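Researcher: Quick test of sequence recovery. Tokens follow.
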């Protein structure tokens, strides 16, 4: 009788523990799923259309173009280069190399994470993305089934930027200086315990990430004075 009672108690504790664990996992996934859902008010023109926005024609001569390569490191948006006041949002405040490096950092930060990281991922990415850009990024994660693959196979997402991002277009649109930047990247699904073993990356895909970057005056959220407005990722053969 006593033995049967002990068995029943152990069975109850095991069942309770399993249900608690399942509830915690389900609750965590619900929170993550909620964050991954793009904002409804972010609907609008397709990213491919926005990324082709007609920027103002760049009338700078070769000399002023070269000048862009040697300016900047302005503090809090103050300072000038020649006759260009970089405090004005319709002028660039970083040179092309700095823009490429920033885009590289933003893409790397966005494409290296574990499933558990998603609980706080929004705050990590907030300095890099506008609300619209974040919505694009969430759609990308959903359409590519990235989070589902990670969760179902206990994988982490790692990425490798294959070459320095390339600025394909730049100019003024809607009163702000903007850049179209293409980033070639390879993403891989990796077992956490084999993260450093490249041979263990059994699922890899090459992507071309096209971003639209824009200057912003919201330095509290975007300390570098720049943000990702649009994010489009396509297979890159």
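Model:
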């Amino acid at each position: 009788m006593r033995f049967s009672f002990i068995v029943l108690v152990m069975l109850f504790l095991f069942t309770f523990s399993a249900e608690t664990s399942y509830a915690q996992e389900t609750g965590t996934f619900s929170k993550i799923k909620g964050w991954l859902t793009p904002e409804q008010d972010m609907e609008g023109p397709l990213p491919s259309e926005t990324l082709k926005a007609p920027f103002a024609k760049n009338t700078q001569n070769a000399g002023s173009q070269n000048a862009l390569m040697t300016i900047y490191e302005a503090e809090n948006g103050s300072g000038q280069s020649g006759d260009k006041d970089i405090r004005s949002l319709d002028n660039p405040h970083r040179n092309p190399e700095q823009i490429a490096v920033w885009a590289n950092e933003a893409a790397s930060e966005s494409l290296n994470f574990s499933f558990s990281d998603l609980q706080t991922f929004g705050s990590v990415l907030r300095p890099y993305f506008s609300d619209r850009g974040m919505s694009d990024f969430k759609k990308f994660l959903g359409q590519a089934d990235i989070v589902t693959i990670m969760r179902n196979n206990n994988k982490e997402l790692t990425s490798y930027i294959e070459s320095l991002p390339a600025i394909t277009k730049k100019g003024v649109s809607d009163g702000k200086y903007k850049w179209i930047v293409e980033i070639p990247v390879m993403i891989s699904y990796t077992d956490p315990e084999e993260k450093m073993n490249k041979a263990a990356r059994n699922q890899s895909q090459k992507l071309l990430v096209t971003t639209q970057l824009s200057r912003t005056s919201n330095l509290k959220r975007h300390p570098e004075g720049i943000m990702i407005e649009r994010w489009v990722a396509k297979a890159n053969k």
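Residues 96-235 form a domain with the Nuclear Transport Factor 2; Chain: A, fold (CATH 3.10.450.230).
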